[in-house]
Design a protein that fits this description.
It is a single chain. This protein is an all-alpha fold and about 45 residues long. About 25% of the residues lie in helices and about 0% in strands. The protein is flat.
């Protein structure tokens, strides 16, 4: 059996429109394996 790794990164975009391009590039590098993207709350009002 192979090993399983989970990597967690905190990414902040200068231009929020670049998010889709970034995810597409991750898929190419990751061999189209699963990628999970979530947004962090910036303050208590967003929770």
């Amino acid at each position: 059996m192979g090993s399983m790794f989970r990597l967690t990164y905190d990414v902040v975009f200068c231009d929020p429109c670049m998010e889709k391009e970034f995810i597409d590039e991750l898929r190419i590098r990751n061999g189209n394996l699963e990628i999970t993207v979530s947004k962090q709350a910036q303050n208590m009002e967003e929770l």
